Amino acid sequence: MDLRRYYILLALARGPLHGVGIHDQIQQDSRSTVYLRHSSLYYLLSTLEKGHIIESAGEAPGLGGIRKLYRLTETWYRILKAEAYALAEVGRLGLQRLPY
Fold first, then answer.
1. Of the candidates 81, 82, 55, 83, which has an alpha carbon nearest to the alpha carbon of residue 69?
2. 53-80 pLDDT, tens per residue?
3. Which of 2.40.30.10, 3.30.360.10, 1.10.10.10, 3.30.450.200 would CATH assign to domain 3-97?
4. For a surface tag, which of 12, 71, 87, 96 has the fewest beta carbons within 10 Å of its beta carbon?
């Protein structure tokens, strides 16, 4: 999974968000090192939804109209959590073996 998709899923791990909320969360989480144009973000959201990784969580009012909410599927929440633990272990090992 590429970094952009990983950040999208991590943004949704806290609960349902609309596209702008996901974008803003990615900017915060990545300390503005990962930037997605809105068109790229919505393309990735569509791809993730078609792959049954995320799903619609209804709609919410927002500036300019109704915004679609997205959430992680239960299965992918568990997968993402397991992968986060595995990546943390890889990071720990890397820092141990590459101290400088």
1. 55
2. 999 999 998 777 899 999 999 999 999 9
3. 1.10.10.10
4. 96
